[in-house]
Amino acid sequence: MLFAILVGVLAAIISFLFVKSLRFAINFREENPWMILLLPLAGIFIVWLYGKYGKDVESGNNLILDEIHEPQKII
Questions:
Q1: Nearest to 62 by CA among 75, 51, 49
Q2: How far apart are the first and last CA of the chain?
Q3: How does the average pLDDT of the chain come out, rounded?
Q4: Can you spell out the DSSP letters for 8-36?
Q5: Is 66 exposed, middle or buried (0-12, 13-18, 19+ CB in 10 A)?
Q6: Which one of 20, 29, 55, 63 is most buried, counting C-beta atoms within 10 A?
Q7: Nearest-CA neighbor of 15 among 4, 23, 26?
Q8: Is 73 exposed, middle or buried (0-12, 13-18, 19+ CB in 10 A)?
Q9: What is the model's pLDDT at position 53?
Q10: How far from 48 is each of 1, 32, 59, CA to CA, in Å?
Q11: What is the C-alpha radius of gyration for the chain, rounded to an integer number of angstroms?
Q12: pLDDT at residue 65, rounded to an integer
């Protein structure tokens, strides 16, 4: 019973923090509508980052399993 109460309290705290952060993000977006114009630039930046640093992750889960058995790279 104690474990169930602890899990319930932790779930409630995490849910509360998630809702607070979501409300902050919504309010920030509504107060700064110009931020939507930056989304294409953010997308281009993410594609550039992926192209520069993320080429090894194309193998997906296999890369993780390979690194567990024979560590050679930083994922």
A1: 75
A2: 40
A3: 88
A4: HHHHHHHHHHHHHHHHHHHHHHHH-GGGG
A5: middle
A6: 63
A7: 23
A8: exposed
A9: 81
A10: 50, 26, 18
A11: 20
A12: 81
Long-range CB pairs of 9-17 (<8 Å, 24+ gap) are none
Query: Taking Cα atoms as reference points, which of 37, 38, 56, 55 lies closest to residue 47?
Result: 55
Q: Per the structure block, which two tokens stand in for 27?
A: 């309010």
Number of continuous H segments (helices) and E segments (strands) in the chain: 3, 0
Tokens of 6: 């602890």
- Which residues, 6 or more positions from 56, have their beta carbon under 8 angstroms from its beta carbon? 63, 73, 75
| Dihedral, 16, 18, 21, 25 alpha carbons, nearest 10 | -130
Q: How far apart are CA 58 and CA 49, in angstroms?
A: 14
